[in-house]
Amino acid sequence: MKDQKRGKNVAIVAAVLxxxxxxxxxxxxxxxxxxxxxxxxxxxxxxxxxxxxxxxxFYARQLEQQEALEYQEIQSPDQSSGIFDKSxxxxxxxxxxxxxxxxxxxxxxxxxxxAAYNAAMGVLMxxxxxxxxxxxxxxxxxxxxxxxxxxxxxxxxxxxxxxxxRAAQWRLLRPxxxxxxxxxxxxxxxxxALLVASQQNYQLERIVxxxxxxxxxxxxxxxxxxxxxxxxxxxxxxxxxxxxxxxRLLNLLAEPGRxxxxxxxxxxxxxxxxxxxxxxxxxxxxxxxxxxxxxVVVMFALSSVVIVRDGEGYVVKHWGQLAQARTLLQPGLSxxxxxxxxxxxxxxxxxxxxxxxxxxxxxxxxxxxxxQELILWTQEHGxxxxxxxxxxxxxxxxxxATARNEAGxxxxxxxxxxxxxxxxxxxxxxxxxxxxxxxxELLTCVADEEMVRYCASATLDQAxxxxxxxxxxxxxxxxxxxxxxxxxxxxxxLDKVDLGVEVVFVGIVSAHPPAAAVPQxxxxxxxxxxxxxxxxxxxxxxxxTLAEVAGNPGDALELFLSxxxxxxxxxxxxxxxxxPAFARAIDGFLRRTTxxxxxxxxxxxxxxxxxxxxxxxxxxTMLRDGYQQFLTRLKLAKKQGPKFDYAQAVAKASxxxxxxxxxxxxxxxxxxxxxxxxxxxxxLREQTALETYQRMLLPFGQAPRVYMxxx
Length: 711
Fold this sequence. Notes:
By secondary structure, this protein is of the alpha+beta class. It is 66% helix and 10% strand. The radius of gyration is 50 Å and the shape is elongated. The model is unreliable at 80-87 and 399-406 (pLDDT under 50).
């Protein structure tokens, strides 16, 4: 009874101690911001419940033993003849029934709850770590000191409990003691992670943060298996009771000597003699400690060797501080002071890093098909797993004035969804790694600020005449120019803050209006398609008319161009001696010709976008080239003034007109041919009549009466 009471007291003290350790871990988590400290406290909190369960079992057994002593006093020799029968004797032992009830129902249910708790917390912590971005840790030195103190205390008390658990009367202390030892190792892992984090290396802390929930999930799986196996394990009267929440893996960790002894016995049994007493086994057993020490020394010496690969740069820290010489290890083999005197931090100077601008919080795909997201600009969607942000694009003054005249009041901005990818590489690890707290975040902020400024000065989908300095049509044909301009502007701003990076690429990967504005854009597109339809219809009618006029549309267009040139040069020839009138006229002709060339170039580009080549557009290319030659001669005429040979230009154009008229095959040519045929027919008929009349005059003159009588 005293043994059970002592075990109960030890369990209560251990529960209080573990609760205090859990509270200290909460304080360290809030003090340092360590994710590893946060995830480890849930394992510690679960251990409190195990100690309380152990205390309850010890207390129940204490009451059972006390009840057994009282029952023995009732069962004295004078009363053994049978005042109480067997059923009455059992009814007088409720404490024993309570112990049986606890072992049969309470312990398995507690095992299930403990397994569910550890599994749930492990999964939740892993998801939490996946969804959070690690930040900078603070007060790591103070946190390491506190962890070492509480961890050492937990280790000593766990060894005390597992030592007591070797005795049969305190057997229930073994599972909780092994769990406390595991918690002490958890605390040690967090302490090492914080110690390494004090050297500005947060990778180990993140690894420990992910490893602890994984161990918790494995522990939960083992508890579940113990529960299932315990249902089918036969109960041997008088056998050692093993609660189902006892972990074999933690027992292996707490008492590895038992496992080694069992393995040695198994090997002895297999070989038929005691291998543990051979000279080789004895040599290994004596030399194991020196071998371990030698291995530790070799590992310590190897920490002074650094192998730097191509495309990498290693910065050396001396006692956690940057060396004044700012040593940057180059590719190859290098030596330094061993850890922890000197540590190194690796930078991928040859790797291309990437940041995405224009995205916000994470989101889930709304429209999917066959497991893939459907990206439709008519529906709200994100870029990857993030939502797209809105950007303001300025409205040109002419468009803004028109909008206000039509609607009375309109904002001077447009809204656009814009996603830009910025790729860069690190050129100076010291500036990038240590001049700023978070260099990547600073780069993102600088690039995002330049992106906002650029959008505010850009136009949406059209070029504005007379504003060449302004970014044009950022959502349509100006995307490539916008990407080049953004790259230059971002690089200039990063050079100002001296970040030590080089921007190698900037690209606009997504640019479209918000879904709410899609109907208006679709109306514009519909109108443009209708305009294309009318334009093609007009072109067909024009080609038909030209074919009717000249037989070949190209000849008709060339004839029109030659006639225009002849008329222009003829008009300029008349006013060449009047400088003001000449200047006004030739400037008008130059503007008109330049506009016609621009319209033809636009038409050719539009047809190319539809898949045609210049060889498929002979009329357009011929007309464009003709206007370009005409523009060249007009510029020469403006430069030479009255000295220009206008008569020759008119004669050359007229000669070309006559040559083209001679080749006409359309309705005018037919009319000319019909007129010529009618002329020859009439002429020949009249000439025949004349010759007949002249032949008749001779006989008439000789004998008029005979002639008249003959007629």
